[in-house]
Structures are given as C-alpha cells and as structure tokens.
Specification:
alpha/beta
Length: 357
C-alpha cells in the first residue's frame, strides 16, 4: 500500500529536478542580457569622436585645440582647409561633425551615419556658438530616408532578421534532429532566403526605412541570416539544449550591442567598440548604411565581414558532419559488438544444452 505514495513522490521529485535544470538556461539569458545591454547602453560617453573645424587660420587652430583640451578625450578635433573637405569627411564617415565658425556659425552633420553621434556633436557646438553670441545653423549632409527619421530603423531591421534566424535554429536543430545534416543545412539556407525577403519587405514597402537599394539590402540580409543559421545548426550537434543560449550570446547579447545601430563605437565602452570591427551585426548595419546613404564607401570591408561569418558557418557545419559521422560509426560498432556478444551467448547456451543432454 505504501509503494504508491512513495512512487508518486519520487516521480514528482524527478520532474522537479528536470524543470529546475532547464530553468538554468533562461536565468543565464537574463544575466547575459543584463550584462550586455546595460554594459553597452546604460551610460554612453563619447571618446575620440572625430569632428572637424573648418578653417586654416590661427583662430580655427585655437578653437580646435581648446575643444580638444576641454573634451578631455571625448573628441578628436582636427582642422580642415575648407567646407568641401569637411563635407567629404562626413560623407565618407571619417568625421561625425564639422563646425564652420564665423558670424553665422554652421554645424554640418550626417545623421545617416548615427543620429546619436550627431546629437552629441550638436550639443557641443551649440554651446560653442552660444559663447560667441550667435545662433547655430545645422546642416545635414547625409539625411536618412523619410521612413526612418531617427536613423535607427536599420538596427531594428537587424533585430527582426536576427530573431527570425536564430529562432529557426531551434526548430531545425530540435524538430529536425532526426534528419541528415545535409537536409538540415538545406533547410537553413532556404529559411535564410525567407527571412531576408521578409526583412526587405519591412525595409521597403511596409515601413519605407530605405527608399532605394533594396536589392543590395536583400543580399546582405541573406548573407547575414545564412551565417547565423549555418552556425546555429552546426552548433546544435555539439551544444544540444544549450544551443539557444549559445546563439543568443553570439547573435543577441554581443551582436546587437556592438552593431552601432543605436550608439557608434566612439560612444560605447571599448569592449563593444572593439567587437564592432568584426562582428556580423555591425557588418550588416554598416554595410546597409554604406550602400544606401554613403555611395558604397567602405562597403567591401563590411561585405567581407558578412562573408567570413558565412564561411564560419560552413566550417562549423563541416565539423558537425565529422562529429555526427564518428558518432554513427561508434553506434554501429557498439551494435556489432552487442550482436557478437548475443551470438556468443547463444552458442554457449547451445553447448551447455548439448552437454546436459
């Protein structure tokens, strides 16, 4: 009679241990997201933010040096000879503001490069103009599309494409675990096409985040999504139920925070600024900016970053294929050994029966 309650208690305890072991993953996600997002975004401060002062005379030199000293590392102030050079620097993302002093001071910015950086620069030079007793005229030499007035739409497009990609990893790796790796890889590539097409629809006809260059945007969205899916599907072979945490670490915690979509690396802690140089989210955001707003300047480098992540996905898949092939061989060998053991046991039993007879 007592076996029933004892058995039920053991079953409940086992189920509880199972649930608690799986709760580790969301708790680690909570810790990781807090560390990543708050670490990257909670207190943005400019450091070595490049700005130009237009002019070659002594007054321009003095103003540039004064701003450099007063900024205490926040700004990297240089003088340029004329307005055309300053505009070129802005349109090639070599600077994030250009101040033209005089009776009617002008500040030139490129909000398509970063609205937050333009805001930081505008705040600095509004104070400079006020000290000179003149209103500041602000000219945007690289404005964003009408559908993206803050310039952050590309970042949120990155979020949508990323979620579609890494969430699909869980489905392909989990529900599709019984499928051959080549089939899972094919599903990953096909899914990346679907995700990239959805991204283009959001960017163009749905929200008008960009008003031209949708073909190039689609190509980058596909390359970005395919890299995530291939890496994730390959990692599932090794990480199993920890794959979700792994892809969130790679493509959310470290990725969104280093992409430059909200704050450029010159306004972030150094760790995230360093990741910006080679992480795939930064490759996508900066690649789309370059393609849509800056005439393709430095686009090759951003495409290289995306291509290398895609190649990394192929490499992880290759390693996964080798690991799965080894497991199949080991499983087959174990089955053969078990069959030989059963056969030997059968022969021995027959011999014992013969002797007994």
């Amino acid at each position: 009679m007592s076996a029933g309650p004892s058995s039920a208690s053991g079953s409940t305890a086992g189920a509880l241990r199972h649930v608690l072991s799986h709760l580790v993953t969301p708790l680690l996600m909570c810790i990781g997201m807090g560390l990543a997002y708050l670490g990257a975004f909670h207190a943005p401060q400019p450091h070595d933010l490049r700005v130009d002062v237009v002019g070659s005379g002594a007054s321009a030199q003095v103003l540039a040096q004064t701003l450099q000293d007063k900024g205490d590392g926040a700004l990297s102030v240089r003088t340029v000879a004329d307005r055309d050079i300053a505009v070129n620097h802005l349109r090639t993302q070599q600077s994030y503001g250009a101040y033209v002093p005089g009776g009617s001071p002008e500040l030139m910015v490129a909000t398509a490069s970063s609205d937050t950086s333009a805001t930081v620069v505008q705040k600095v030079f509004t104070e400079v103009a006020a000290e000179q007793g003149a209103p500041l005229e602000v000219t945007d030499v690289a404005p964003t599309a009408e559908g993206d007035p803050t310039g952050q739409g590309i970042f949120f497009l990155l979020v949508a494409v990323s979620i579609g990609s890494y969430a699909s990893v869980a489905v392909i790796g989990g529900a599709g675990a019984v499928l051959a790796l080549r089939i899972r890889a094919g599903l990953a590539v096909a899914t990346s096409f679907a995700v990239s097409l959805i991204g283009v629809a959001f960017a163009g006809p749905v929200f008008g985040l960009v008003d031209h260059g949708l073909g190039g945007l689609w190509a980058m969205a596909w390359l970005y999504s395919a890299g995530i899916l291939l890496i994730g599907v390959g990692l599932h072979t090794f990480l199993k139920r920890w794959t979700t945490l792994g892809v969130m670490l790679l493509f959310v915690m470290l990725n969104f925070t280093s992409s430059g979509g909200i704050f450029r690396p010159e306004v972030q802690p150094g760790f995230f600024g360093a990741l910006h140089a080679f992480w795939n989210g930064a490759g996508f955001v900066e690649g789309v900016r370059s393609h849509v707003y800056f005439g393709g300047h430095a686009l090759g480098g951003h495409l290289l970053v995306l291509a290398l992540w895609f190649v990394a996905g192929l490499a992880v898949l290759g390693l996964a294929g080798l690991a799965e092939a080894r497991r199949r061989r080991e499983k087959a060998e174990t089955a053969r050994q078990a069959a030989r053991a059963r056969a030997a046991a059968g022969v021995e039993e027959e011999m014992e029966e013969a002797v007994g007879v």
